[in-house]
Specification:
The chain is of the alpha+beta class. It is 38% helix and 21% strand. The protein contains 14 helices and 16 strands. The strands form three sheets. Strands 1-5-6-11-10-9-7-8 form an eight-stranded mixed beta sheet, with helices on both faces. The chain has a five-stranded mixed beta sheet with strand order 13-12-14-15-16. A hairpin with an 8-residue loop joins strand 10 and strand 11 (295-301). Helix 5 packs parallel to helix 9. The chain is elongated. Bound molecules: histidyl-adenosine monophosphate (HAM). Histidyl-adenosine monophosphate binds at residues 82-84, 113, 115, 120-122, 125, 127, 129, 131, 260, 280-284, 297-301, 303-304.
Length: 414
């Protein structure tokens, strides 16, 4: 086992780091409660077709990044690369349209993408996602964006920017594609082979290409925002009015098209300058074609969120919370210590005793390392008298207590 290492682009999260994740997760649950969101948990793997159809055949995710496998029954699944398609599937499959609209859900989930790992980009990453189902209203777009904004603000994040854009609906896309194809056809010699293929399948996906020569061409390409219908234009204006009304600053960024096919109308990203090459904390948008009545959502990368908060020194130090260490001297003392810690735990008081046959001196060193708030040691004298000296590890203060009344000593502490 010793020379088997974790898969590239994954992480082991433990100890103080895991405590930070719990902190972030508990803040997510609190923010979700403020907005009346309900939690949704979907399977770790789904039918591969779900992603091919909704995320899109010509996207990086589907073309290059999915972890797919065939099970014993010959069915082909993918570890989920994102959770919007699964959430839509769950919404439909469980008839959640019968809930009062909009049905508002959130999730904290791992996602799997076979990308080239680097800082902020992993093969297993986690997202805090929110999806609103059953409303086409621009007010929903603004409220969804405000969920993201309030969450990162509550965590104390600084130096971020909200970029928004509209990519229009299917009719706008048809007009835009004509303009884009005409532009790209003139530049075809400079495009990479994948982009040439994408031109036929889904020209807008050419705009996601990271290849440097394609980037040169993309920067002067037509943009969807200049090809919007009147209705889509009005919708985008309303989104901006609602954001202004909420006091959320934004920049209109014509270059945002998002890398997934299901979007229409509003798309947005929250960017940070503290992320290096990966500047997006999260992003999302509207995806009315997947859900009757319309839908809008976002996904935020939790690893990226933690990287930014760490760089900005906004993460709390979360020490282990141990109320008391009970040491034991000799077999009878150790047995009594085990009894006492169990009694304390049953009363909701965190307590630790030695499990490694340490000397008393080593036990107290261990108590110190655990950061226990109090300590006491039970030996023959204590067993005989029924009393022990409890020490406040921080102040050094000591007090004699009746061993059988130790729970009362911590009275009120749950
Ligand atoms: P996405 O932009 O692909 O959108 O991912 C959302 C966020 O997840 C990214 O902005 C980033 O913070 C994080 N992320 C994505 N890939 C990685 C990775 N390889 N390593 C680390 N972090 C990563 C979606 O997935 C959509 N489902 C979002 C959405 C929800 N749209 C509507 N509803």
């Amino acid at each position: 086992m010793t020379n088997i290492t974790k898969p590239k682009g994954t992480a082991d999260i433990f100890g103080a780091n895991a405590a930070l994740w719990r902190y972030i997760e508990s803040e997510i649950h609190k923010t979700a409660a403020l907005f009346g969101l309900e939690e949704m948990r979907t399977p770790m793997f789904e039918n591969v077709e779900l992603f091919v159809r909704s995320v899109g055949e010509a996207t990086d995710i589907v073309q290059k990044e999915m972890y797919t496998f065939t099970d014993q029954g010959g069915r082909t699944y993918a570890l989920k690369p994102e959770s919007t398609a699964p959430a839509v599937r769950a919404y439909t499959e469980n008839s959640l349209h019968t809930l009062p609209a909009p049905a508002k859900f959130y999730y904290i989930a791992p996602h799997f993408r076979a990308e080239r790992p680097q800082k902020g980009r992993y093969r297993q990453h986690h997202q805090f996602g929110v999806e609103f189902f059953g409303t086409p209203s621009a007010a929903a777009d603004a409220e969804l964006i405000s969920t993201f904004h309030l969450f990162i603000t509550r965590l104390g994040m600084e130096n971020f920017a909200l970029h928004i854009n509209s990519i229009g609906d299917a009719d706008c896309r048809k007009r835009f594609n004509v303009a884009l194809l005409s532009y790209l056809s003139e530049q075809i010699d400079g495009l990479c082979p994948l982009c040439r293929e994408r031109m036929n399948k889904n020209p807008m996906r050419v705009l996601d290409c990271k290849n440097s020569t394609c980037q040169e061409i993309i920067k002067d390409a037509p943009v969807p925002l200049n090809h919007l219908s009147k209705e889509c234009e009005e919708h985008f204006e309303q989104v901006q009015e609602y954001l202004t009304n909420l006091g959320i600053p934004y920049t209109v960024d014509k270059g945002i098209v998002r890398g997934l096919d299901y979007y229409n109308r509003t798309v947005f990203e929250f960017l940070s300058t503290d992320l290096g090459a990966q500047s997006a904390i999260g992003g999302g948008g509207r995806y009315d074609t997947l859900v009757n009545g319309g839908a809008v959502g976002f996904g935020m990368g939790i690893e990226r969120l933690i990287l930014i908060l760490e760089a900005q020194d906004k993460l709390p130090h979360i020490p282990r919370d141990i109320a008391v260490f009970v040491g034991g001297m000799g077999d009878a003392g150790a047995a009594k210590a085990a009894q006492i810690v169990y009694k304390l735990r049953k009363s909701g008081i965190s307590a630790i005793s030695d499990l490694c046959d340490r000397s008393v001196k080593a036990q107290l060193k261990y108590a110190d390392k655990l950061n226990a708030a109090h300590s006491l040691v039970i030996g023959d004298t204590e067993l005989e008298s029924g009393h022990a000296i409890i020490k406040n590890m921080q102040s050094g203060e000591t007090k004699e207590i009746e061993i059988d009344k130790i729970v009362e000593f911590f009275g009120g502490r749950i």
